[in-house]
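Minutes, project check-in

Agenda point 3 was the complex the collaborators sent over. CS summarized: two entities, 473 residues total, and the question is how they sit relative to each other. Sequences were read into the notes so everyone works from the same version.
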Amino acid sequence: MKVFTENMTITAKDCNLYYGDFHALRDINISIPGKKVTALIGPSGCGKSTFLKIFNRMNDLVEGCRITGEYRIGEIDIFDKTTDINLLRKNVGMVFQKPNPFPMSIYDNIAFAPRTFGIKRKDELDEIVRTSLQKAGIWDEVKDRLRKSALGISGGQQQRLCIARALAASPRVLLMDEPTSALDPISTGKIEELTDELKKEITILIVTHNMQQATRIADMTAFFLLGELVEYGTTDRIFSCPSDKRTENYITGRFG
Amino acid sequence: MSIRNKYESELRLVFDKLIAMCHATELAIEKSITALQKRDRTLSHEVMDEDKYIDNMEREIEQDCLKILLMEHPVASDFRDVSAALKMITDLERIADQAADISEISLQFGEEEFIKEPEHIAQMATLAIGMVKDGVNSYINRDIEMARSLDSRDDRVDLLFETVKADLIGLIREDSANADQAILFMMIAKYLERIGDHAVNIGEWAEYAATGYHKIG
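CS then shared the predicted structure for the full assembly.
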């Protein structure tokens, strides 16, 4: 079995995805650079979240979902029979639109994945909890209440806790599906700053409906429409001089 | 009114004000040269006084554009339209300043007879006025060909400038007493030559607004 390496380029070749008869993603070819933030934008229902979820195989759980094409993270073929799905999900973290802390203490939320992967020693777990919360920029806010319920902190803190929980598994890739759409501007700002910090070590794919957010944090932007990848390029170019009229119309608010 | 329609009406207002500023600037150049030719001191003063209205127009359009950038966060062609307008008004304002400078110089000729009728200078002014007008029109109408043509039209202005310069050097050689007026004419010709350059800048911003490409250098 191949192992995850420093090469974190994400590629999709001839990507097609069907939900039953519905052709949700059509002939997508893309190469996403490692250690960068790539924004997936497009109107609701265009397939961007569906595309995102391919990379930790969350669509496997959707009944009637069929995927064709070739998908790689570095050297790893995501759908290869020899690929360990648990190892894949350890390396490809996911943060959702709505914060979803487990109904347990802050500490146990963060320690959950390391424990699953066999880490038992308290000092080792303490260290992982501390560094993960620090990386997620929430350590100072929760260090004195690590044993309190994670459900008792604010929505913005819960979302950063979820990011810390994902980081505790030392992922190579972080998938974020509209991670700030339910947050206030201050919490949003903290998470945006966090992505900027995290990309030094990991590759980030973020689905966002907020065009300003894409321009602020993304190095690359991909525009999806009706299951197609219409345009992909540097964020700077996409937002200053898109080459496809459909991209122009969407980002300038002429439709969608 | 939808957000998009509101944005488009705000941008149309910027376009209208830009056309008005362009028209006022063309008029300033025209009047400055007429005042020179006819020794009309009142008209020269008028151009100098009216420069502050053009300055105000620049500030007003600038505020409108900054407000759009702040409130609407435009992207793609919307962003290029607003940023090009912001750059173009700086060129228009400088052109109007140069028309006022020409008027100020015209006043220094006094009552003396001209050492030479400023026919080439008048030709430079006619070309420059046309270039300023077409520069702004190429932006409004997204006429890339017209915007690009300004570069070669500027070559004609530059050629006339060289002709004026050669004439004036000849006149100074003939009689050093011509030097005072020759320097004044030379300065006026130089201002017109600079106006041509500013018009080329306007054309380059028009091309940027239409295509996203901005010529460097």
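Noted in discussion: Chain A has ten helices and ten strands.
Follow-up: revisit at the next meeting once the mutant set is ready.
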